[in-house]
Amino acid sequence: MAALVSEEKGGVCIAQSLKIPREPRPGEFDKIILRLLETPNARAIVMFANEDDIRRVLDAAKRNNQTGHFLWVGSDSWGSKISPVVQQESVAEGAITILPKRASIEAFDRYFKSRSLSNNRRNVWFAEFWEENFGCKLGMHGKRPGSPKKCTGLEKVGRDSTYEQEGKVQFVMDAVYAMAHALHRMHRDLCLGYPGLCPRMSNIDGKELLGYIRNVSFNGSAKTLVVFNENGDAPGRYDIYQYQITNRSAEYRIIGHWTDQLHLNMNAMQWVSGDSSVPASVCSLPCQKGERKKVVKGVPCCWHCERCEGYHYQASEFTCQLCPYELRPDQNRTGCQPIPIIKLEWHSPWAVVPVFIAILGILATTFVVVTFVRYNDTPIVRASGREMSYVLLTGIFLCYVTTFPMIAAPGVAVCSFRRIFLGLGMCFSYAALLTKTNRIHRIFEQGKRSVAAPRFISPASQLVITFSLISVQLMGVFVWFVADPPHTVVDYGEQRTQDPENARGVLKCDISDLSLICSLGYSILLMVTCTVYAIKTRGVPETFNEAKPIGFTMYTTCIIWLAFIPIFFGTAQSAERMYIQTATLTVSLSLSASVSLGMLYMPKVYIIILHPEQNVPKRKRSFKAIVTAATMTNKLSQLASERPNGEVKTELCESVDNSSEYRRLLF
C-alpha cells in the first residue's frame, strides 16, 4: 500500500491513500504514479509494501519522468536492502527507510557456525540450506539439480561461505524468552510449586496467558529491557537510514534513530543533487492573507484557497465574515477598517458651477435692488409696485444664497439653514408673483361686472396676503424643526460600491427625499397656481400690467422644474447621487431665480439706466377705461378668427361708447 502524506503545522496527514493490488495488471503502477501526481505539492510517499512492489513503484516513477520529484519513505520491509534500488538509484535517491535497532548475538553466531549435517539432523530444511549456502549437491536426491559440485559434509559455515547474522535473530530470541518468562510466572502462580505441568495448566486460557506475556519484564539478548505496553507492543527502537549517492556510489547511511523519541542528524541528510535543505511536501500550499481554507472532504491536509470577496474579511483560518456596515476590509482582508467619509467640496466641479452661477445671480440681484432703491420714486419703479418688487427680489436673492448652505460641509447649523432656505426663497418669489397675478385677475374680472374696484388691491393688502402665504412655509419649517431636529448622518449605502476600495460614506444632512418634496412642495404649489393665473390673464394688454412677462416667467420656470424632477430622482441609484442631486437642485433654484430676474426686472433696469427719457409719467387712465379697453381687446381677438376683417371692426365700433376716451384706448 502506498500513502501520500503532506506536512501541516509540524504534523503529518494523509492526502491520498492508494492500494497496491495483490496481482497487479500491466500499467497498474503507472496509474498509481499518475494518481499521486494529482496532488503535485505532496511529494512524500510512505510505502508499506514488499520489496518487489517497491521496485515496481520506483520503476514506474522513472518511466513517467518523475526522477527527483517524489520523496520516498520506506518501512522496514525496504530497510537497507539493495534489491529494490538496483538500477533505480537515481529515482530512489534521498529515500528514508527504517530498520528495527538490532544487535549481533555472538552466542548465536558461535552456535550457528558450529552446526553441520551431522549435528543438526532435526531441522528438515537444513540440508536444503546447506546446498544453497555452499553451492553443492548432496548425493543423488539433492535439492540442487545440475550442480557440478558434491557436498562433502565437511564444509563449515562462515569459513567456506559468506555468513552474516540475520537482523531479526535478536527479536526471535527475545520472543522465545518472553514466552518462557510468561509460562514460568503462570506456573508459579497456578501450580504453587507443583513440579511439571499441573492440572490447572493442562488447558491454558489464551487470554490469561496473554496477560502474563504483557506483564513480563526482563533484559533481552542484547541487554535491552523487554517490556510490552497496554496494546502489547514492545518499545520502538529503530535505526533511520537514507539512501544517498556520493561520487557515483550509492549506499544507505544512518542519519538517526528512534528510542522513545526521534533523534535525527539533519547535517547528515542529503537530498537530490547534494542539496542539504529539507524539501517541502504539502498537499496544498498555505493560503495568502485574506483567503480562507476550504478543506477537501475527508482530507484535512488538502484544501482550496478561496479569497474573501466583497465586504468580507478573513475572520479565521476557515471562515470569512462580513464587516460591519460602516467598515470595509483592510488591504490584506485580515480585518476591517473605517470607510472614508466624504462630502461635497468647494473645489469640486459639481460645486464650482452652481457657486459661479449663484455669485453672478447675487451680483445681478444686488445691482437691481440698488438701482430700484436709487430710482425708487421714478415712474417705472412705482408702476412695478415697489413693495411687491422688493419682496420678489428678496426671494430671488434667497434662491441664489441657498446654493451656499447646500454645498457647505454639513453640520447642525448648516442643516438648519438648509431647511429654512431650501423652500423659503421660492416661497417669497412665487407668493409675490401669485399675489400680483391674482390682483390683476380680480381687477379685470371685477371690471366686467362693475366699475367698483375689488377689495385688497392696495400695496398694504398685497403685502399682508404675500406674507400670509410665506408664513405657511415658515410654519411648516417650524413643525419640521420640532418633530425632527436637524442633525447630520453618514450614508454608507449611497456609495457602497462592489469594490470596497471605492466605498465611501457620505456626510449629509438628515433630509430625506420625502422631506425635500414636502419642503419644496408648497413653493411648487404656489408656482403652479401662479401659472394658472398667468394663463387666465394672458389676454390683458401689455400696456396696462405685467401679466404677460409674469406668464412667460412662469412658463419657463415650470419647464425648468419639470426637467429637475427626472434628473433629481432618476439619479437616486447613482454612485454620484450626492453630487448630481445637489448640483441639480442648486442650479434649478438659480435658473428659476434668473428667469424671474431677467424677464421681470432687467427690461426695467435697462430703461432706467440706458433710456431715462422713457422713464416719465404717462397720462393716467380711469379704472373703467382700462377694463373696457381690455374687454374690447379680448373681444377683438376672439372675433378676428371668426369674421372677415371689415366686419370685425364695424361690429366693435357699434358696440363701443362714442366717448373719445374709449376710442383712444381701443385704437
Written account of the structure:
The chain is of the alpha+beta class. The protein has 20 helices and 19 strands. It has helices at residues 28-36, 51-63, 89-92, 106-113, 126-134, 169-191, 206-214, 349-374, 379-383, 386-401, 403-407, 412-449, 459-483, 513-536, 547-570, 577-600, 602-610, 623-640, 645-655, 660-666, and strands at residues 2-8, 11-18, 44-47, 71-74, 96-100, 218-219, 225-226, 237-246, 249-259, 262-264, 291-296, 299-307, 312-314, 320-322, 327-329, 336-338, 341-342, 488-495, 504-509. An eight-stranded mixed sheet has the order 2-1-3-4-5-8-9-10. It has a three-stranded mixed sheet with strand order 17-19-18. The protein is rod-shaped and about 165 Å long. Residues 644-667 have low confidence and may be disordered.
Q: What's the layout of helices and strands?
A:
Elements: E1 2-8, E2 11-18, H1 28-36, E3 44-47, H2 51-63, E4 71-74, H3 89-92, E5 96-100, H4 106-113, H5 126-134, H6 169-191, H7 206-214, E6 218-219, E7 225-226, E8 237-246, E9 249-259, E10 262-264, E11 291-296, E12 299-307, E13 312-314, E14 320-322, E15 327-329, E16 336-338, E17 341-342, H8 349-374, H9 379-383, H10 386-401, H11 403-407, H12 412-449, H13 459-483, E18 488-495, E19 504-509, H14 513-536, H15 547-570, H16 577-600, H17 602-610, H18 623-640, H19 645-655, H20 660-666
Parallel strand pairs: 3-4, 4-5, 17-19
Antiparallel strand pairs: 1-2, 1-3, 5-8, 6-7, 8-9, 9-10, 11-12, 13-14, 15-16, 18-19
Helix pairs in contact: 1-2, 6-7, 8-10, 8-16, 10-12, 10-16, 12-13, 12-14, 12-18, 14-15, 15-16, 18-19, 18-20
